[in-house]
């Protein structure tokens, strides 16, 4: 029983890591795309900084 639970948790951990990896790479690409097609420079700095923080947080996990 215990081995079964550990197996399920390890699978869940791998899945969670894959999802986090996908989200962080998506946000990283979104940030690059957003900076390329910039419309309002003043708003860009705040949003880009928030996205950078989110990318760093997801990469740290």
UniProtKB/TrEMBL annotation:
It comes from the Eukaryota. Keywords: Membrane, Transmembrane, Transmembrane helix. The keyword Transmembrane applies. The chain crosses the membrane at residues 12-30. This is Uncharacterized protein. It comes from Iris pallida (Sweet iris).
């Amino acid at each position: 029983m215990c081995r079964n639970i550990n197996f399920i948790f390890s699978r869940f951990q791998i899945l969670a890591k894959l999802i986090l990896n996908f989200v962080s790479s998506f946000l990283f690409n979104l940030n690059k795309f957003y900076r390329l097609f910039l419309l309002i420079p003043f708003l860009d700095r705040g949003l880009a900084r928030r996205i950078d923080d989110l990318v760093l947080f997801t990469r740290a996990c």
